[in-house]
Amino acid sequence: MKVIIPAAGYATRLWPLTKETPKPLLPVKDKPIIEHIIDNVLEIPDIDHIYVITNSKFYSIFKEWADSIKLGIPLTLLNDGTTSNEDRLGQIGDIIFVINKAEINDDVLIVAGDNLFNFPLKLAYEEFKKNNCIINSLFDVKSLEAASQLGVAMVDKKGIITDFEEKPAHPKSTLISQGVYFFPKNKVSLLAKYIKEGNNPDKMGYFIVWMLKNKEIVMGPSFEQEWFDVGWHEALEHARKEFKGHK
Q1: How distant, in Å, are the alpha carbons of 41, 79, 83, 183 from that of 101?
Q2: How many Å apart are CA 28 and CA 26, to the nearest integer?
Q3: Residue range 191-233, pLDDT digits in tens
Q4: Strand 27-28 to strand 31-32: parallel, antiparallel, or no bridges (unpaired)?
Q5: Using an 8 Å Cβ cutoff, are 33 and 23 in contact?
Q6: Cα–Cα distance between 184 and 182 in angstroms, integer?
Q7: What letter would DSSP give residue 172?
């Protein structure tokens, strides 16, 4: 299984913190956000390669970080060639860039690079192995107001996602996507099909909506523990105070 960590955003809402430092490298509990993700990823036994994709603006900063860490498996850093919000590829565009560049032909785990949580990814991995379908792990934020700023899912009694909306004005539930996606090898090509049809390359949530329209099964197991949206200053400060680290 290969891991793709999209980290090519510009995080303008966090300026000036992110004017010179990418959001995934901002420190929380004495280490960059992305290292909390990697610590969690490494508990999955099938993982044999991690790909991190960034942009031209932040590539040298990520390169310095990548050269400083030691892992038991290879980590490859890729540059999508963009320089600003205006020419960015979008999250899905970056994922496809990695798949094509690295010629990935394997199961894939995608984890957003600014994702701060401590639920064990291996639990979602176990659901993936059991169901052999696309998995989008969910978290109950217990607030409709908070949900309205995120990707919101509805699930049936079997845990299958039946409805998904990005930042809905009136959320139908408080279950939100954690930005974690497991793809079986035979479903990875659906990402390229989605883009080929001219769909929005920005957020994975749009892809989930497209999947549902095309009658593809997406499981949405929900997990407790901590999850933080660190997209603005107050949220980041809250995470720095409350996040307990990976367990």
Answers
A1: 22, 10, 19, 18
A2: 7
A3: 999 999 999 999 999 999 999 999 999 999 998 777 887 878 9
A4: antiparallel
A5: yes
A6: 7
A7: S
